[in-house]
């Protein structure tokens, strides 16, 4: 009975989490437009935060509940799922274009952030100093990204598909309605994240599974569900940049901001498995995107065959974690 209650809390929390994150992004974007905040900032900061809000809130609440391993498992598990599962499954529907500009600019930043995390966590401790460094690096990356975008396109009040300006025929959002969904979405996000964390922790305790395994599998897969759906839709519509950018941006946010916030709230220790198993795989998958991207010259593609490879890697990794959960020590 207790397990069913925990499972119901987890599934309900997950479903409401996805819904409230969408409402929060809509409300934040509409409010910013009404207050004449440049749409460029909306896209890079507000919407960027909103799409990663599930991971951030779940990890922050887990840290507050003295479950830091759930936090880091959620962050790194989501990163592995983003590349191996999301890009892999997306490529099965339609080969994913990886532009050379992404390989030369965004991917090096992601790899550098991953390597910084690896160096800081090598002593198996996530201290507040480590966390502050991760957050500072994230702040620098965001600032530089905004400045580069401002230099290239400017900060216009509108947004269209070519120039980044808002189409004149788009109806202006209502400030009252936008504020309502901004506040409601944020409140429901927090409540649903709390339900999800409680359900995951209770199921882990009942089954005797460690928090890190739950974070890497169930919680990470659940909080990555919105990215999976949006990436598949983007690829089917031929918007490959959106699919790849979604994954790169989410991984950067998880690696730096999510782990950083959790560590600031409560410093914690990690097991060697996090370094030699999870972070190693995460780094190799990131390098794999480079290989796929540069393999054909010009703009590269993640083909259906490569999508199968990525999906199989995720399946094997998840199966291994499940076996470790029930038959070994994590």
What does this structure look like?
The protein has helices at residues 2-34, 39-64, 68-93, 100-120, 128-153, 175-207, 211-223, 225-236, 240-265, 272-294, 304-327, and strands at 96-98, 125-126, 268-269, 300-302. The chain is mainly α. It has a domain at 67-155 and 197-327: NCX, central ion-binding region (A middle domain of Talin 1). The protein has a two-stranded antiparallel ribbon. The chain has a two-stranded antiparallel sheet with strand order 2-3. Helix 2 crosses helix 3 (68-93), helix 3 packs antiparallel against helix 9 (240-265) and helix 4 packs parallel to helix 9 (240-265). The longest helix has 33 residues, at 2-34. It is globular, with a radius of gyration of 19 Å. The protein starts with a helix and ends with a helix. The relative contact order is 0.23. The model is unreliable at 156-169 (pLDDT under 50).
| Count of runs of 4 or more consecutive helical residues | 11
Q: What is the helix fraction of residues, given as a range?
A: over 70%
For the record, the CATH architecture of the domain at 67-155 and 197-327 stands as: Up-down Bundle
* Total beta strands: 4
Percentage of residues in DSSP E strands: under 5%
How far is the N terminus from the C terminus? 27 Å
Unreliable parts: 156-169
Choose one word for the global shape: globular
Structural class: mainly alpha
Name of the level-1 CATH class of the domain at 67-155 and 197-327: Mainly Alpha
Mean pLDDT: 79
CATH homologous superfamily identity of the domain at 67-155 and 197-327 = NCX, central ion-binding region
């Amino acid at each position: 009975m207790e397990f069913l209650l925990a499972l119901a809390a987890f599934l309900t929390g997950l479903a409401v989490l996805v819904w409230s994150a969408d409402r929060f992004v809509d409300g934040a974007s509409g409010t910013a437009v009404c207050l004449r905040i440049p749409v460029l900032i909306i896209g890079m900061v507000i919407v960027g935060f909103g799409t990663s809000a599930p991971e951030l809130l779940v990890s922050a609440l887990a840290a507050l509940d003295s479950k830091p391993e759930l936090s880091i498992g959620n962050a790194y598990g989501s990163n592995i799922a983003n590349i191996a599962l999301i890009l892999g499954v997306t490529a099965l529907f339609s080969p994913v274009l990886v532009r050379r500009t992404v390989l030369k600019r965004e991917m090096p930043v992601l790899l550098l952030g991953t390597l910084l995390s690896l160096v800081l966590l090598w002593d198996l401790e996530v201290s507040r100093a480590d966390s502050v460094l991760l957050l500072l690096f994230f702040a620098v990356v965001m600032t530089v990204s905004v400045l580069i975008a401002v230099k290239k396109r400017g900060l216009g009040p509108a947004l269209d598909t070519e120039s980044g300006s808002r189409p004149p025929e788009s109806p202006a959002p209502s400030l009252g309605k936008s504020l309502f969904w901004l506040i409601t979405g944020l409140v429901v996000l927090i409540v649903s994240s709390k339900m999800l964390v409680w359900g995951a922790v209770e199921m882990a305790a009942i089954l005797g599974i460690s928090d890190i395994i739950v974070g890497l599998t169930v919680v990470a897969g659940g909080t990555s569900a919105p990215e999976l759906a949006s990436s598949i839709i983007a690829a089917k519509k031929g918007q490959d940049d959106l699919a790849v950018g979604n994954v790169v941006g989410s991984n950067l946010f998880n690696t730096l901001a999510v782990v950083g916030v959790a560590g600031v709230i409560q410093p914690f220790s990690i097991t060697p498995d996090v370094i030699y198993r999870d972070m190693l795989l995460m780094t190799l998958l990131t390098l794999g995107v480079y290989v796929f991207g540069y393999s054909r010259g010009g703009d590269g593609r993640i083909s259906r065959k490569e999508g199968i490879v990525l999906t199989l890697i995720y399946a094997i990794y998840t199966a291994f974690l499940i076996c470790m959960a029930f038959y070994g020590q994590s």
